[in-house]
Amino acid sequence: MTQRTAVIALPSKVGEPVTVNGWIYHRRTAGKLCFLEIRDGSAMVQAVLKRGAVPDEDFEAVEKAPLESSVSLAGTV
Question: What's the pTM value of the predicted model, to 2 decimals?
Answer without folding.
Answer: 0.87
